[in-house]
Write a structure and sequence with these properties.
By secondary structure, the protein is mostly helical. It has one domain (about 5-160): Four Helix Bundle (Hemerythrin (Met), subunit A) (Up-down Bundle). Helix content is about 70%, strand content about 5%. It is built from six helices and two strands. It has helices at about 5-30, 40-70, 75-100, 105-115, 120-135, 135-160, and strands spanning about 170-175, 185-190. It has a two-stranded antiparallel ribbon with strand order 1-2. α1 packs antiparallel against α2 (about 40-70) and α1 packs antiparallel against α6 (about 135-160).
Length: about 190
Amino acid sequence: MAIEPVFLALVGKFDALCEALQSLALTAIEDRPAHGDVLLVERLGDLVEDLRGLTEEAREAARQAQDALAHPSDFNLGRRALGAASERFIRVEYRFFAEAASYGTIAELRRFGRQRGREWLSWTGGAVEALEACRTPLREADEALFRGWQELGERLGSRSLMVQTSAIGQQITSPQPRPGSLQPKRDRVTDGLT
């Protein structure tokens, strides 16, 4: 498979994840009831903003990898950019599942909604749905990153160099300029085994 479509798909998956997190931010931050500042709600809003920022950084790094691997390819730059995208994405994934969508957070949101009345219950239900809607784009971005690494590895593997020796001994040739000449002189050094 060509490398360009793989990285085009990767950037597309990060776009979809950014959209899902934007929807979560609208629900968690913008749509919350106007009255009452609650630590749980503030904490969720801050976490969502952190996730959005990290995802934007991952998407930008994936775009840099895509650009680097377009013709003519710069595999070293592409590898570094893909590494940066992976590092940011791992942080997003970890924080999403360990903090935002953890069982404890979901249970706390539902309990909070039941305690605060209908307006807050509606908000917490929407926040939980928006959290759940992020799971599929996260999984798809994870799979796209894997395919990106796989394709890049295949490309780099096909560009490897094989060195084979077939004789005992060693011959080293190095250019040395002659005094007063612009042409290098080749000196021959042998180790005496040939």
